[in-house]
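Teaching note: in complex prediction, the entire set of molecules is handled at once rather than each chain in isolation. The prompt given to students was simply: 'Predict the structure of this complex.' The entities are:
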Amino acid sequence: MQDSKSPLSDRLSAPAGAGSSFGELRLDGVSRSFGSAVALAGLTMTVRRGEFVTLLGHSGCGKTTALNCVAGLLPLTSGTVWLDDRRIDVLRPEERGFGMVFQNYALFPHMTVRRNTGFGLAMRRLPRDEIRRRVGEVLDLVKLSAHADKLPGQLSGGQQQRVAIARAIVVQPPLVLMDEPLSNLDASLRLEMRTELKRIHRELGRSTIYVTHDQDEALSLSDRIVMLQDGRVQQIATPEDIYARPATIDVARFMGYRNLFELDVASVDGDWANVAGKGIALRGLRRGEIGRRAVVAIRPNDLVLDGGSEGGIVGRVEIVEYCGREYIVDLITDAGTMLQARSAQRVAPGDVLRCHASADRVLIYPVASGAA
Amino acid sequence: MAGSVAKSTVWIAGQNAGVDRTVLLVVPGVLFVILLFIYPFLYGLGLSFTPKEGGFAANYAKFFSTPYLSQTIWTTLSLAIPATVINVGFALPLAFHLRHASRPQRIISGLLVVPITLGTVLVAEGLLTYLGPQGWFNRALIEFGLINTPVKLTHNYWGVLMSLVVTGFPFDFLLILSYITGIDPALAQAAATLGAGPIQRFRQIYLPLLAPGLAVVFCLAFVLSFSVFPSAILLGNPASSTRVITIAAYQAAYEDYDYSLASAIAMIMCAVQLVIVAVVLSIRGLFYRGPAGGAKG
Ligand SMILES: Nc1ncnc2c1ncn2[C@@H]1O[C@H](COP(=O)(O)OP(=O)(O)OP(=O)(O)O)[C@@H](O)[C@H]1O
Ligand SMILES: [Mg+2]
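The expected output is the structure of the full assembly:
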């Protein structure tokens, strides 16, 4: 997707091993079970050249399992993995040549930053001079040149993470796999490293599969997001789509649609539907075939306390939190439904106010098992 | 009241000096070591310098000028070093192979604990019959037509070596296994994704991280083998080929009643062990010795 002819990628794209570039990686029904427990059920997806794809989902949904299956660290129970028209799920990890950034970094504790970074090149038996040059370049890229002769134990968490990234990308892998590389970092460092990852990806244009359970991270980094739950794909879409149009109620809940409640369906016209009940009347976008009842999903951000006189939802203010530009307000309706909305002005607990959501920000889902 | 005030002052003073009160917990241990190790050691050292006759170093002069005595150092080393090398050399690949928690790992570890609990004397007696001229081992070889007359494996060097291997191996295996399982398997996985095959993973990742532990195992195994006594008598030829240094010390003490010479021999034994241990540990100093898990943030 990105222009891979930036000056930096020119300098770093020294002669690499066979298969260093590819058209697309294809996972076809990749499954993995542990005993009777299914960790990953039929993952089918493609990663195109230069694309940044994120696996997103709750803890335990099978993200690491999927990544390990691609890397060759975990045999598949069924399914196949293809690199263009070459079947690679039968290859050992050392034959695949993918770069992997482990969740806990897995830096070699007995090797200096320089040797850690050059390990993959040394395994490929490149000449000493070339290893030195490429390690020097990649350490510049991740801004670690000053620490090249330290051991991993002498580095901060963020520095270790950059060594892990440098070690994975210096071999010019066709595909980089990253397993929650930012999860061990504090909030500010996480933001900084996120930008760093974005920069590295833009400069090198490497295809990347990234694993995270942090929706902000996924939204800001990815070209496409694969939403997983209990080992199953829920949705594969661009960040914009997954944010604005979650495919299922579970994805919506994960993506921060905190106002979820079940109502009666009043009417359906095309993509739109009107729902009512519990003293609420709303119009919204229909997501899937709905019956007599449906679940409504609205983000707190899209539900605005505007003091209007009719329609929308009426509720009594319970809690008001100031969060910078505006206020987040917890409301309760007469029928006892809890809501979260935003307000531009300060309101007082106990006030009874009306809030509205524009129809294209209201999503209406069929009632699913386990829906709120 | 006054007492408690004084105590807390001491405590605060201790804190200022950077001394943690938990350091006091080592006191019983230190006392124990002094009473059971340092004191007898110093007593023996003193005793060794008060010979029955001659100057203060007469015992040492006698030991090194009498081949019958000084020879025992080489006899012991020629048993202890091969036994240690064999044990560590076989325990390492086996433990490496069984590093993943699995059923075979548990079964083999369990089986290997048995010789440890049996003790050297029982093992020696077992080997005596098993390896003897009429034992299964020789009979089997004769049955298969591999040999005509029984090979002599008892009452000589080989019998003692064998018993050192049998009693030492499980110990080394279990120690090495615990070192290996302490190495984060993600390190080898990371090496694999970077293109390292099994041999390179062993040489580049496991071996350097294991080396310090191996050195410690080697020292322990060596010290245990060096003080071989029961099997050297039961399975060996204590008059000549397996006349190890402990036998010399025993004879000096309980046959000649020369406690002073016996103490000197014990001191020499101690010195030889210290030299070997020092050499091995100084090699260990060349390796990385930090935690073997992945470094955490
Ligand atoms: N070696 C294993 N043996 C048995 N079950 C396993 C094993 N590894 C993973 N699982 C199970 O498979 C499921 C998926 O695990 P996985 O590690 O892929 O989750 P994850 O999405 O990476 O979670 P997290 O975000 O917490 O890292 C979990 O329910 C887990 O308990
Ligand atoms: Mg995981």
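Point out the following to students. Residues 67-97 of chain B form the longest helix (31 residues). Chain B touches chain A through 27 residues (CB under 8 Å).
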